Amino acid sequence: MLRRGLLCLILLVFPLAIVSADSLEPEALLERMQEGGLVIYWRHAATDRSQRDTDLSDISRCEVQRNLNDHGRDQARKVGKGFDDHAIPVERILTSPFCRNIDSARIAFGEESWEVREDLFNVPPVRDRQRQQDLVTALQRYLVTAPEDAEKNVVIVGHNINLQRAARVQIDEGEIAVFEPGGDTPRVIGILTPDDFR
């Protein structure tokens, strides 16, 4: 109870950033993404909320996880087409090992275009507090690290709670938070929905 009260107090004093005052509007953000040098954090596309993650002992078993629904698959196709249509350059695509993340990356960017990273594992199912913190620290490091090629972007297909804890940014399923790396702390410059790519 004390922990919950403390969390509520922290959120009142330091609320989650949805969009800062200097955030770019979608059109300007897409133009900025074309220039490269950014970290693009995509929360996996929409899922079937009637499903739950019931057994994560073998993360390759999609039948015991919450998976994309038809709307989510449509969102993933929109994102992939949007990257193509707007000629957004990508250096590499990193994804959580969860099936909904891998499927989002696969549908958007094609087979074997992505790399599964265990340090992008979803935080809530993890019971070990040190591992939770390690996951948050790893994501913070990703968000402030520039792509090796300054004219391309790094895409991360991740989870909402990880992003909330690492950068105090909250996004819905299918949404994209764009970060300008290089500082000590993650700096979001704008948020996109799949429909913004039209």
Q: What can you see in these coordinates?
A:
The protein is an alpha/beta fold. Helix content is 37%, strand content 14%. It is built from 6 helices and 6 strands. Strands 3-2-4-1-5-6 form a 6-stranded mixed beta sheet, sandwiched between helices. Helix 4 links the parallel strand 2 and strand 3. Helix 3 crosses helix 4 and helix 5 crosses helix 6. The longest helix has 16 residues. It is globular. The termini are far apart. 36% of the residues are buried.
Overall, the morphology is globular
Determine the N-to-C terminus distance. 46 Å
Please describe the biggest sheet, giving its number of strands, its sense, and whether it closes into a barrel: 6 strands, mixed
Order of helices and strands: HHEHEHEHEHEE
Number of strands: 6
Any key phrases for this structure?
alpha/beta, six-stranded mixed sheet, 6 strands, globular, 198 residues
Give a brief rundown of this model:
With 198 residues, the chain is an alpha/beta fold. Helix content is 37%, strand content 14%.
